[in-house]
Amino acid sequence: MAWPNDNEPKEWRIGHHVRTKDPVVDKSGDRWKMWYGEGMHWMKKDGELIGWATSNKWRTQLHKIAALVLTFLLPNTAATTFYINDKEGQTSVIINIEFTLKLTYTVHGDSGEAAGSRVLNENDFRPRLVGSWTGYKTVQFENRLYAIDELFLYYTFELDGSPGNVSLARSVYMTPRHTFAGNRSPLENLKFEAVDRLNLGDGEKAYECDKTETMSFKKVSRKADDYDYSVEMETTLFHAQAFSVNGLNFNDPVRCEDMPSTSSGSNSKKVAIIVGSVVGGVVLVAAVVAVVVFVIVRHKKAKIQMSPGLGLDNCK
């Protein structure tokens, strides 16, 4: 791969790979390209520059501090900041994820056959944020299924088509006995449409959450105790909600019709992610304040619903 000359003007380097220690992301041939340079990266779609993001040491530190604060405010929650400037403006959003998965697995080995079926939700997974170098934010859910075998679910937030639109794609990977199997699924392409200059407060209903998809794959262990490992996974519920941090718009969640909720109160491991442009510290502070308000409001609602003095004891 040929790198540009550092003495060349920046305008020339925008259209080429920029010298960097990080890998270069290339999606769908020439359709999507991302380049990283010192303090700046560019994104192109079909040859047109659609976005860029600047970074400096102090702003990066602010982002890390904000993520730590958010993680502290929401226990068992992964939090981070993601910012990108584009031609249309800014957007900031908190995502609340709930899901239910039905897993059926069969293991054939030297010691016989083991099979089982489990129903899991977000409470059964340990959330972690990975892949930040790509410019995407990926939430990794980890669950130990059988012996030392693990299932990883990756929910990746990506720019979708128009500048600033955010979509959510899911990838499923398994590591049976340290071997690798993967399956990328187009299920739940959640599209939070750009509304009012990318303020996503009205985007809460702009997602698909009533899909059910079954995927399966099979992996043979390379260890001495060879066995066949096959898994079928069915998504019975997926719910995601977008909140507008800029407008502090916290509406009640919009749920799929005829779909049960997986929420289990304070024990539920929600994933809060701030996505958006961070200009100075204004949006950053607003995001932290928004999360504090969100936690307080939800806590008060839970107390009201459980209070015997309000005549709500018999509510079903």
TrEMBL record:
Q: How does it sit in the membrane?
A: Single-pass type I membrane protein
Specify the protein name. Answer: Uncharacterized protein
> Where would you find the membrane-spanning parts of this chain?
271-297
Q: Where in the cell is it found?
A: Cell membrane
> A GO term (biological process) for this protein?
establishment of protein localization to organelle
Coiled-coil ranges from the UniProt annotation: none
Q: Any one cellular component term from GO for this entry?
A: late endosome membrane
Q: What species is this protein from? A: Elysia marginata
Q: Which UniProt keywords apply?
A: Glycoprotein, Membrane, Signal, Transmembrane, Transmembrane helix
